[in-house]
Amino acid sequence: MDHPEGARETGDGRLSFDRRVRLEFHGSKISSDGGLLLFRELDEVLGLHDIAGGFLRDTRTGHNRLHSLVGLLRQSVFGRLAGYDDVNDADRLSLDPVMRQVVGGRAVEAKAASASQMGRFETEVLAATDNRTVLADLSGHWIDRVHNRKPPKWITLDMDSSVSPTHGAQEGTAWNGHFGCMCYHPLFVFNQFGHLERCALRPGNVHSADGWEEVLKPVIARYADRHLMRFFRGDAAFAIPELYKTLELENYFYAIRLRANRVLQGKIAHLLKRPVGRPPKGVKRIYGDFQYQAASWDKPRRVIAKVEWHPSELFPRVGFVVTNMPMEPDWIIRFYNQRGTAEQYIKEGKQAINWTRLSCKGMAQNEVRLQLHALAYNIGAFLQGTDLPDEIADWSLTSLQTRLIKIGARVVRHARAITFQLAEVAVSGDLFNRILAAIHRLRAPPVP
User: Which of 231, 251, 399, 428 is the most buried if burial means most Cβ atoms within 10 Å?
Assistant: First the structure.
């Protein structure tokens, strides 16, 4: 049955341009997030939240346990995926028919969790030390499940930091001169599929590579037993001798940018002389390849230099990359330049999931919010990685949110069936079913 509060008409009005038009509002019968049902099916096919239920510890007692821990986690994650980036909308979403179906259990016949219930869940239950550790590991467990269904031939890890502006006296907030604001300074590791392998929330005034061991080493450990090629990319902030040694020990090929210095410039002095003759009409690229050992390094390493002469510029643009790859210099530079995709993934997370929305006062609670945003982002990225129809194969996460998730849906309940009548505007019924078929192809093969 529909929830009585949501089923009543909450308003009635008419429009002046056509008096025949009448407005009615039925909160528990109509939803604007019909596409979430697809992502809930993806969750079911991969068993994502079942993994979470096996690790999270439930600290609730008494009447606080109206909804299961997995149901509350689904409400947190799928709400963020649909664009509701905190618990402020939970009271209205608790009556939404799609959200109730996504949460499951008691919510289907009654209602989902309220704002106060969700607030306690995120700031108390998940903020417990054990559960924060589980949340930090959960994205990796989910990615392993996806890779078990579609095994990759190689893995490329991109590490980068970002900014989350803060407001007021939030714990851990600090001024960051590079970003020019009071902020947190989170650290991210992505793979080549756009999956967020792991992230960590850090105070705003730490170095870009601060705490890289706690973020990168668990990811390296997860791939240790897989038979595949391994690659790593990072900007100049991650040009750290201990990082080189860790990657070499774990058989990773790496390409990491080096900051220019006098010794490096001297190694390519012969490439910095302006070419004789008329300036070229296009960009002229020259590569250098040499061995170099900084004072803090334990051994010499290969360094690739790229020198670019642009027609309208007097001096060349110079960049250095330290690597242990045996490929040609131009291939290595192209490989390193693809690191920019990680910046696009961060941009998608900011725009679609709004993972910079960390408005709690405590650092632990904001860490929980960041990990919930990461889980929501990964569910969207998992759908992008399926064999989607050509019409939407290149849709960004923002497009999936605004055009696929935001489908109007009307629920019709019968004794033995629950029917969602979906609008066909950006996504037709045929396209919707083909997306659903792509999700079902991820099912594990039957056990003989």
Answer: 231
